[in-house]
Amino acid sequence: MTDLSTLKVPGPTEIALTQPFWDAAAEGRLVIPHCRACDQPFFYPREICPHCWADAWDWRQASGQGRLKSFSMVWKPGHPGWAPAAPYAVGLVALAEGPVMLSHILSPAPVVGMVLTLAPTDIGGRVLPAFRPA
Amino acid sequence: MRPQAALIGVGSLAPQRRTEGASTLGMLARAAKAALDDSGLEKSAIDGLLVGPQVGETPQHVPATVAEYLGLQPVMGNVVDLGGASGPGMIWRAAAAIQAGMCETVLCVIGNHRNPEAPRSPNRNPIREFDVPFGASGANISYALLKQAHMARYGSTDEDFALIAHWARANAQRMPEAIFHGQPASVDEVLASPLVASPLHLFEIVMPVAGAEAVIVTSAARAKGRRAAYLLGAGEKITHRAVSQAPDLTSGPLKPSMTRAFAQSGLGVERMSLLSLYDCYTIMVATTLEDSGLCPPGQFGAFMRAHDFGPEGDWPLNTHGGQLGYGQPDLAGGMTHVTEAVRQLRGSAEGRQIKDAEFALVTGNGATMSEAVALVLGAEP
Ligand SMILES: [Zn+2]
């Protein structure tokens, strides 16, 4: 398997609002927004809660557990920097808390429905919240 | 209340892999001229203008720039920015503006060149921040995720999907302008084409081309005595942008859009003479067939095996080859499904005419099965 840390690939384009997510990711943690008003989690982070439009929400630590909703083995990456890693898997992870995030899946043969767990991984020089089979 | 308008002229530029030195404005002008000639109207009749976003030479003030280039001074101008649904989305907006009394004859025009140049403007949206860093750049992966989800949920097979690409290539053999004219593909050949993003094979993905498409929409009164197709119903729905935010991976916003369009028209899908279905990828046709009610969820494969989708078949589907056979002229790809439906309903689809074509279902789809427009068109008002 290619050492993902050496890839020359585009990293996150964080802004002040999303900085805590990427800072936590760098420490190997997954945090997601949780609305104070409607008591629901959401992802990705937004200025206001997409469920109820409340502007008061908190970062909460997620369990890091999830289930694979779908995946693709990427043979021809959309960005040339990923070519040395192909084929690699990306997938939709239904987090145990509810929201869905797209992530890198550390498995040569993923299966829809498989249980996943957070696997902080250095990708292109930054630790990102990837997932692997639990 | 339903939208009422006549689609009185259509113009298409043949798809091309490259257009060295061409400008998008120039291509829009040539498509517009072809549509006006086809309509039999004078240029002075045009008093409305709908254009697509990202016109190569001008990211902003697009309607004014296009109007100036064409020597028009419209009383209604706007941009429709719904990805592959932009073309169909223009048609009902034109009808609505005409019915509101704001204008009478609208030029809907969309297209793009393909020249080597810098990529589009820097993107800082949530997809760039939360998808791209994990290795997910571009639409192929999003639609691969949708196809995989369908296969996992319903047990649909690669062969089922390959039939869709096979029929698109087959119909393209009746369309001399199509990029895959002269290149049919069997199911085996589709399956033998390289995996791009599993489970999507190369032949299940559109070929990007340059092109432009234009449609002139006018009031039913003005269309009297001329050959026109008529808007009988329309529906639109936007559900998300990034595939991770899709409320459902195996049914899309075209479902409510088609329901609304059929309700307005008073017709059911079984009355359609032509299915002009947006086909950026095979999975998009599969989901649309199921969302239309033509077959139960998960059963498109059996439907593909049971019918003939050519112009003389029992279910003519994308008789211009679809975008999978014709090529995808960027955002104008969605408009090819409109222009083909108009040609079929007016009896001018040379060499691929459906006999006695009465009604057509047209669908448009944008982003990651996110933006949807459905139209029902008829040969009579
Ligand atoms: Zn809330």
UniProtKB/TrEMBL annotation, chain A:
Pfam family, one: OB_ChsH2_C
Superkingdom assignment: Bacteria
InterPro entries: ChsH2_C (IPR002878), ChsH2_Znr (IPR022002), NA-bd_OB-fold (IPR012340), Thioester_dehydratase-like (IPR052513)
The protein, known as: DNA-binding protein
Residue ranges occupied by any ChsH2 rubredoxin-like zinc ribbon domain in the UniProt entry: 22-57
Domain ChsH2 C-terminal OB-fold intervals: 59-116
PANTHER family in UniProt: BLR3430 PROTEIN
UniProtKB/TrEMBL annotation, chain B:
Pfam family, one: Thiolase_C_1
Alphabetical list of CDD domains matching this protein: SCP-x_thiolase
InterPro entries: Thiolase (IPR002155), Thiolase-like (IPR016039), Thiolase_C_2 (IPR055140)
Gene3D superfamilies: 3.40.47.10
GO molecular function: acetyl-CoA C-acyltransferase activity
Keyword list, A-Z: Transferase
Superkingdom of this protein's organism: Bacteria
Coiled coil region boundaries: none
PANTHER family registered for this protein in UniProt: ACETYL-COA C-ACETYLTRANSFERASE, NON-SPECIFIC LIPID-TRANSFER PROTEIN-LIKE 2
Protein name, as recorded: Acetyl-CoA acetyltransferase
Organism: Pararhodobacter aggregans
